[in-house]
Specification:
heterotrimer, A mainly alpha (about 270), B alpha/beta (about 280), C alpha/beta (about 250), A: about 270 residues, mainly alpha, 10 helices, about 0% strand, elongated, C: about 250 residues, alpha/beta, Rossmann fold, six-stranded mixed sheet, 10 strands, about 25% strand
């Protein structure tokens, strides 16, 4: 099952990369005479939206935006979490307390509420959306990293390198990080679905990618008005979001089976 | 009289790198005696003990001509039937009580559960039985121990509790897998003497699995030495120090001895012929 | 020529009501080139003494002197060039993601050596492991091989004193013999001083010339190995221990 997830994601990346070649139409080209065409219409396999734009092309270009958001968050959140968690876990004492309380503060915010607040303060747009999502996504990684660090810290091999005069920086980066990475990777892939949904949610509320950008969440929002008679305008991007989220979940499950047992084996 | 008859026991584990044979053609009988199975790690001694109780799960494959408990072949029993055998007729005590006692149940609860699994008895009768069993393993304050949790017990106490639990259904055979390896030296003697008393008083058969040659020479009647899944030598415990097989001699000589100091210890050089040679039969 | 002096060493964990005294008023001396044993049962404090010497125990009092110099609360780098430790569990003392080469190179680098490559080769040679083990990972090594790597790591700094915490307890009997022989050879080749902790009297009797018997954090008796062999131990606990070991 994990392989299915992987293939879907590889497909997604290929589509995003090859968007100019694959999209039959310009995603921004409006054809007001051709509005709300149903599926399997002439020249528009997935139909058109309320401004006559080809849904398939918008879907294809939208994959780029999705990958952009997901990719950025997947880098920022775990790395921030790793830094905070490992330093807190290794150094202990006041540093640990302060860092963990800061983590708790961010953990207390529901994702969309913080994003709303952020965007209200800084204005709408993709970059701000990414920042907002990352701010709520990093705390769990910090917790995981800290828990792993606490376990590892008391091991003989850490004592051994301390006895050679190694400093905290070296121990954290060269000895502790390699051991935390696999659980973080598993967590990231499983988190992806949530991140995509959050991005789509922000787009839906008009806070993420701005029109006429073909972001999938924004597309669902636009299609909301027509859902009774022209359901495909909202359903098609919805299916895309569903498929990609499912793919990440399957991949994450598979990765966990591969990475975790070896770790617990020691 | 023969309690257990094992003939041509094999335990195999298929893996991506081929089939790993943990136990290769082991045969022995057990009467009302103390039989030791000695070997280093990887010799297959623990696997033999587990195979007798059919505790080896797939992908492990266990085959034997027979593993007969008083004439009844255990190899042909279903899992359900084996559950009647385990604990009731053949019991096992393992190495570290930390890992074999349930940490979230009190000791009393666990012993009572063990008893009621095999006997239809009310809780109060089971409680009295548990108390008397704890006294039999020289635990001085059994009521307090019944209320305590496993982590509050020392290693020696934990092991004695394990023995109490395992002997409460009065099995005919006890398999002890390195029961004293995790214990301090002074406590080892205590636990061994308890096992000794119980086994003798009840006329049980004992299979004692260990890596410690000197320990079994003192404690057991007969010794089987295993190497690489096979039995390489069988001898009486009192004659252990005159063993003939080069592996046994090698093991004996590589031990440091207080009363026979040497500059350097003899190092065992393994002869591949030892694992090729067929298993020596331990059947009497 | 005394290499290591321990005077009235006390080590404790926790404070106030929860204070546990792991070591109480321990005192002993170890001469240069000698091998000193610490025996006792679990909880006797023997391993804690080693950890306190290395600076791995946070709360201690008393005096520890190495080669005449008292040690400071926070160990200096020079200390780690003189004293090194081999841990008990070979399965836990090597980083699971670092190859043998990485372990030794990093150690040599931290100790300030330049010709790292040549030294790695020599270290592996000294402990009886050939070049083919150099790029292996711990899970590809047996217990005895891992312990050899741990010994190589401790020798990288060219120390004078090696603290050995039950180095062979987790190993098979035949492998134990190899490691003990290796330690004997290294001691005579490099004129090392050993402090060896064990619960096994026969191992200590083989490796050490003098030993201290510990019970509940206190040293109850210090004796020569001859006294041990002739069963002339004076303290009742030592006699008990001896009787249980034979």
């Amino acid at each position: 099952m994990a392989m299915i997830g992987l293939w879907i994601l590889i497909l997604l990346v290929m589509i995003a990369v090859g968007a100019p070649l694959l999209a039959p139409h310009d995603p921004f080209a409006q054809e007001l005479g051709n509005r709300l065409q149903p599926l399997w219409s002439e020249g528009h396999i997935l139909g058109t939206d309320s401004l006559g734009r080809d849904l398939l092309s918008r879907l294809i270009y939208g994959s780029r935006i999705t990958l952009y958001i997901v990719g950025l968050v997947a880098l920022i959140a775990p790395i921030t979490g790793l830094l905070v968690g490992t330093v807190a876990g290794y150094v202990g004492g006041w540093t640990d307390q302060v860092l963990m309380r800061i983590t708790d503060i961010f953990l207390a915010f529901p994702r969309l509420v913080l994003a709303l607040a952020f965007v209200a303060a800084l204005g709408a747009g993709i970059e701000n959306a990414v920042l907002a999502i990352s701010l709520t996504a990093w705390p769990p990684y910090a917790r995981i990293a800290r828990a792993e660090t606490l376990t590892i810290r008391s091991s003989d091999y850490i004592s051994a390198i301390q006895l050679q005069g190694a400093g905290a920086m070296r121990i954290i980066t060269k000895h502790i990080w390699p051991l935390c990475i696999s659980s973080l990777i598993v967590r990231v892939t499983l988190d992806m679905a949530g991140i995509i949904l959050a991005a789509a949610g922000l787009g839906f509320l008009g806070l993420g990618a701005q029109p006429p950008s073909p972001e999938w969440g924004a597309m669902i929002s636009e299609g909301r008005r027509f859902i009774l008679d022209h359901w495909w305008v909202a359903a098609v991007p919805g299916m895309a979001i569903f498929t990609v989220s499912l793919a990440f979940n399957l991949l994450g499950d598979g990765l966990r089976d591969v990475l975790d047992p070896k770790d617990s084996e020691k | 009289m023969t309690l257990l008859d094992v003939e041509n026991l094999w335990v195999k584990f298929p893996s991506r790198q081929g089939v790993f044979e943990a136990v290769r053609g082991v045969s022995f009988t057990l009467g009302r005696e103390r039989l030791a199975i000695v070997g280093e790690s990887g010799s297959g001694k623990s696997m033999t003990g587990r195979a007798i109780l059919q505790l080896i799960r797939p992908p492990g494959i266990v085959t034997a001509d027979q593993v007969s408990l008083e004439g009844v072949n255990l190899m042909q029993k279903t899992e359900r039937e084996m559950r009647d055998v385990r604990g009731k007729r053949v019991s096992m005590v393992m190495q570290d009580p930390k890992f074999s006692l349930n940490p979230v149940m009190t000791i009393g609860q666990q012993i009572i559960e063990a008893y009621r699994l095999h006997n239809k008895a009310s809780k109060s009768i089971a409680y009295e039985k548990a108390l008397s069993m704890l006294e039999a393993v020289s635990i001085r304050d059994p009521k307090r121990v019944m209320r305590a949790y496993p982590h509050e017990m020392s290693g020696g106490m934990g092991q004695r509790i394990m023995i109490a639990m395992m002997l409460i259904p009065s099995p005919e055979i006890l398999i002890a897998d390195e029961p004293t390896s995790a214990l301090d030296v002074s406590v080892q003697r205590q636990v061994l003497s308890i096992i000794d008393t119980l086994v003798t008083d009840r006329g049980m058969g004992l299979i004692f699995i260990s890596h410690d040659l000197n320990l079994v020479a003192d404690f057991c009647d007969r010794v089987l030495i295993m190497y690489s899944g096979r039995i390489v030598e069988v001898c009486d415990a009192k004659n252990l120090h005159e063993a003939k097989h080069p592996y046994t001699r090698g093991l004996l000589n590589s031990l440091p001895r207080l009363n026979a100091p040497r500059k350097k210890l003899d190092v065992l050089s393994r002869d591949p012929a030892w694992s090729e040679a067929p298993s020596v039969s331990g059947r009497v | 020529m005394t290499m290591l002096t321990i005077e009235n060493l006390c080590v404790w964990f926790g404070g106030g009501r929860d204070r546990v005294d792991a070591v109480r008023q321990a005192s002993f001396n170890v001469k240069r080139g000698a091998s000193f044993g610490l025996v006792g049962e679990s909880g006797s404090g023997k391993s804690t003494i080693l950890r306190a010497i290395m600076g791995l125990a946070p709360n201690w009092s008393g005096r520890i002197s190495v080669d005449g110099q008292p040690v400071t609360k926070k160990r200096q780098k020079a200390f780690y060039k003189t004293v090194q430790m081999v841990f008990q569990d070979p399965y836990a003392s090597l980083h699971p993601r670092h190859s043998v080469d990485q372990v030794l190179s990093e150690t040599l680098h931290l100790q300030g050596f330049r010709n790292i490559d040549a030294r790695v080769v020599k270290l592996l040679d000294d402990v009886g492991l050939g070049g083919k083990f150099r790029f292996r990972y711990p899970h590809q090594l047996s217990g005895g091989q891992r312990q050899r790597v741990a010994i190589a790591r401790s020798l990288a700094a060219e120390p004078s004193i090696l603290l050995l915490d039950e180095p062979t307890s987790a190993l098979d009997v035949s492998v134990q013999a190899e490691i003990l022989n290796l330690l004997t050879d290294l001691r005579s080749e490099q004129n090392l001083t050993y402090v060896m902790v064990s619960h096994d009297l026969s191992v200590v009797g083989h490796m050490c010339e003098q030993l201290a018997v510990m019970k509940d954090g206190e040293i109850v008796e210090i004796m020569d190995v001859e006294t041990l062999r002739n069963a002339q131990a004076r303290h009742s606990y030592s006699r008990e221990l001896l009787a249980a070991s034979i």
